[in-house]
Amino acid sequence: MTEVRVDDRKDDESDTEGIDIFADPEGFYPPSPKPTTETHTLLSGRVLSLRLVGHNPLWGHHLWQAGRLISTYLETHPDLITSKTVLELGAGAGLPSLVCTLLGAKKVVVTDYPDPDLISNLWANIDTAQLNIATSTSSDPTTKKIVAEGYCWGASPTPLLAHLPTPSSGFDLLILADLLFNHSEHAKLVQTILDTLSRSKDARALVFFTPYRPWLYEKDMAFFDLVREKGLCVEKVLEERLEKVMFEEDPGDEELRRMVFGFEVRWCGGGV
């Protein structure tokens, strides 16, 4: 009798054809958190709706206390904004920058780490507030009152200064809201202030923060020691106690975690 052999290799191959046996099964990883929305009410009564990224390791998914307080401070000090150029660092949702644009700033550049989600979210908030419609329908960013830009602290300021009418002039106002917790980046933040703050007697950097980790408060404040070492002057302009803490489950002195401290940084002697 003749032996009959069946070649079943074709069938075996067809069972796994097009299948990645190393792929993670569907649902293996939890879905990414969806974007959320927060609101902020201006002193005028206007309500701004702010989109926040679903989650981000750089904490861009929160609307921070200092961002709210610095926005209110700017509303009560319009001379810092009107017809001025503004740069915000580590902006998150960009609330202070939106407020500056609404209050008549000449040009606002709102920045955060060059992560696509963070920057596209800033543009989404700009579009929602309709801040550029009245100025131009052009896609040319130089014609817009407010633009979003990715920027790493301490890097070359050239892309930021390029948005100014006179690129070498520097910005009239810098905004740093709740950035001091990042102690390893203090030197880079100071360098960016030196590189981008206009050398005029009226130029200011506003630095507002809450000590979310009260036991590291002195390290937060060490930022201002670096600022002074570089020939800049520092003045406290705000100290406000909030009704409640932002993160109720966090450890540390609750009273200190309710506080927002605001400082003004400027050139000693009125600049150059």
Task: Kindly summarize this structure in a few lines.
It comes from Hymenoscyphus albidus. The chain is α/β, with parallel strands linked by helices and 272 residues long.
Secondary-structure map:
Elements: H1 9-16, E1 36-41, E2 47-52, H2 65-75, E3 85-89, H3 95-102, E4 107-112, H4 116-128, E5 146-150, H5 158-161, E6 173-177, H6 186-196, E7 204-209, H7 217-229, E8 232-241, H8 254-257, E9 259-267
Parallel strand pairs: 3-4, 3-6, 4-5, 6-7
Antiparallel strand pairs: 1-2, 7-9, 8-9
Helix pairs in contact: 2-3
Give your account of this protein's structure.
The protein is an alpha/beta fold and 272 residues long. The chain is built from eight helices and nine strands. It has helices spanning 9-16, 65-75, 95-102, 116-128, 158-161, 186-196, 217-229, 254-257; strands at residues 36-41, 47-52, 85-89, 107-112, 146-150, 173-177, 204-209, 232-241, 259-267. Helix 2 (65-75) packs parallel to helix 3. The radius of gyration is 24 Å and the shape is globular. The protein starts with 8 loop residues before the first helix and ends in a 5-residue tail after the last strand. Its main location: cytoplasm. This is Protein N-terminal and lysine N-methyltransferase EFM7. Keywords: Cytoplasm, Methyltransferase, S-adenosyl-L-methionine, Transferase. It is found in: Cytoplasm.
